[in-house]
Amino acid sequence: MYSIGDLSRRTSVKVPTIRYYEQMGLISAAHRSEGNQRRYEKADLERLAFIRHARDLGFDIPAIRELIALSRHPDLPCAGADRIAEDHLGAVRAKIEKLRKLEHELERIVSHCCGHSVEDCYVIRALSDHALCEAEH
Amino acid sequence: MYSIGDLSRRTSVKVPTIRYYEQMGLISAAHRSEGNQRRYEKADLERLAFIRHARDLGFDIPAIRELIALSRHPDLPCAGADRIAEDHLGAVRAKIEKLRKLEHELERIVSHCCGHSVEDCYVIRALSDHALCEAEH
DNA sequence: TCTTGAACCTATAGTCGCTAGAGGGATTAG
DNA sequence: CTAATCCCTCTAGCGACTATAGGTTCAAGA
After folding, report:
1. Continuous H helices in chain B
2. Are residues B124 and A67, on separate chains, in Cβ contact within 8 Å?
3. With 80 as the cut, is the pLDDT of residue A16 above it?
4. Which of B70, B104, B127 to mutate to test the interface with A (most CBs of A within 10 A)?
5. Which fold has domain A4-76?
6. Where are the domains of chain A?
7. Collapsing DSSP states into helix, strand and coil, what is residue B97?
8. What integer is the mean pLDDT of B100-111?
9. pLDDT per residue over B26-85, tens digit each?
10. Could you say which residues from 11 to 50 on chain B have a Cβ atom under 8 Å away from some Cβ of chain A?
11. Of A58, A102, A124, which has the smallest distance from its Cβ to B92's Cβ?
């Protein structure tokens, strides 16, 4: 039997976050002590570690809910889980692509700025005048 | 004289967003018509285009506030603006780095999954067992 | 001039995944 | 038995908007 604090220390998930996950339906409502405090078992610890891991990999809460639901039906084909992971991978790649374009444009703007005063600062001028940009954004 | 809708169409900033920027102090409170509707001039349009452009480049609102303040003092050295842009570039690069690690790990997990049922799905197993991961995250 | 419909107004709540705080009760070590 | 630490619920805040409700003003056509 673990208290919520024990669970928190063992999974590195903060106490309020555990309560939040309960509210979001990612973990089922815990048993309570006589004094109404949450008491957890080993299965809860594993479940929470799963959630933590998925969050670290950037899955959002609805995706995690689906993954948990799938993991309770070992007989189903795993195409569902694969699709969730692939979709997420696609989203991560899209974000990287966007950020890379941003990086490129910012690099260009920063490196072009050799002025001394704000008046001829390339950073400010580029923001004021879209025509100074290389790509659309 | 532009109405808020004119301004919106010309800058591609949505009407509620323009009001939000006014609330956040990025644009000064507009003059009003007799019937209390906002009326803008060319200077407001340029200011809003500047903001839009900075947002597209990922600057957050406090940074934009600073950039606007700087752009009104053309005599100041432009090191302040440069630093804001460089800081932002650094943040963008850090995000890219994080996402690339995620991408790598997700690729690995997805590509290892050749199971047919959830029971031996590598996606689910990797989430359940952190030891299957290559890097810490 | 009147009417209609589009555009405008304010104020409030919702998004996401937590995090922080207030104000109180439970547990446990000494 | 007491004090320190933990735990409880409830509410509000973050950032940058977006959506909705309920009402007012404007502009163009009849």
Report:
1. 4-11, 15-23, 42-56, 61-71, 79-112, 122-128
2. yes
3. yes
4. B127
5. Multidrug-efflux Transporter Regulator; Chain: A; Domain 2 (1.10.1660)
6. 4-76, 80-132
7. helix
8. 95
9. 999 999 999 999 999 999 999 999 999 999 999 999 999 999 999 999 899 999 999 999
10. 46, 49-50
11. A102
